[in-house]
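Hey, weird one. I pasted the Sugar ABC transporter permease sequence into the form twice and got a warning about non-standard characters only the second time. First submission, copied straight from the form history:
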Amino acid sequence: MTLKSPAALDTEVIVTGVPHSARRRQLRRTAESYAFLSPTIILLLVLMIIPIVMVIGYSLQDKAIIGKNHEFVGLDNYVSVLTNPNFWNATSNTVIFTVVSVAAHLVLGLGFALMLNNTLIGTVPRAIFRGLYVLPWLFTVAVIAVLWRMLLAPNGVINFLLNTDIEWLASPQLALGTITFINIWAGYPFFMVSLLAGLQGIPSDLYEAATVDGASPVQRFWNVTVPQLRPIIISLVLLDLIWTSQQFALIWMTTGGGPINVTEVLSTFTYKLAFAKYDFSQAATSAVLVLLMSMVLAVFYVRHQKARD
C-alpha cells in the first residue's frame, strides 16, 4: 500500500472539490437568472402564449365561446374564411394601406432627417422644426382620429381652405386614400427620429473622403449615406410593416371600415366577425391567419437583426 503525504491528500481534496463547487455556483447562477426572468415568463405565458393557443383552438371549432356544444370541425373555418370575398377585399385594402404608408414614412422620414441634419440650418430654427415635425408622434390615436375627423368634415377647415364640400371619409373613392394620408402623417416622425440619429452617427471622414474623390452631393448620398443607413432602414421598414398591417384604432375611429367596406382591413374585418356577427370561430380563424402573416414578417426581422449583430 502506498502512503500519501498530508500535502498530497490536501491537494487531491482541493482538486476533486473544485468541479463540485464550480458546478454548484453555476447552478445557483442559473437558478437566480430564471428567478429574475420568472415574472416576465409568467406574464408572457398568461397574456400571450395561452391566449394564442386558445384562439387556435377556437378556430378549429364550431360555435366557439357562445355555443354550448363545441363541435370540432378541423379546417372548415379556414376554408370558409379563405373563400369569403370580404376577407380578400380586406386583405387587398390592408396591403395597399400598409405598403403606401410604409413607403411614405420612409421617404418623408428620410427627407426631414436630412433637412434637420443639415448644418445650413441654425440651431434655434432646427430645434423649432424638430419640435414641429415630431408633434404628430406625441398624439394618441384617439386624438389623431378626432382631430382629422373635425378637419375633414364637410364644414371643416380643409374644405374651407379648398373651397369645396367633399366628404373625405364618406366617399368610396377617397376614403382609403384619406385614412392612408392620416396614417402617414401620424407615423413619419418615428422614421425621422430614428434616421436622424443614424445620420448623426455617420463619420464625417467618409464624406470628406468622398468629396476629395470628386463625388457630387447625389453620389455622396447614394454611396455613403444610404449604405450607412441601410441596417436602420431595413429594421424600420420591417417593424413598420408589422405595425401598420395591424392598424385598427385609427381606421375604426375614422371610418369604421366603411363606406361599403372600401376601408375594411383585416383588423376591422376580424373585429366585426367577433363583435358584430358574433361568429367567434371565424373571427379566431381570421386572427390566426393574420398572426401567420405577421410571423412571416417577424421572422425576416429577427433574421435581419441576427445578421446585423
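That's the output from the first submission. The warning seems to come from a hidden character in my clipboard, not from the data itself. The radius of gyration is 28 Å.
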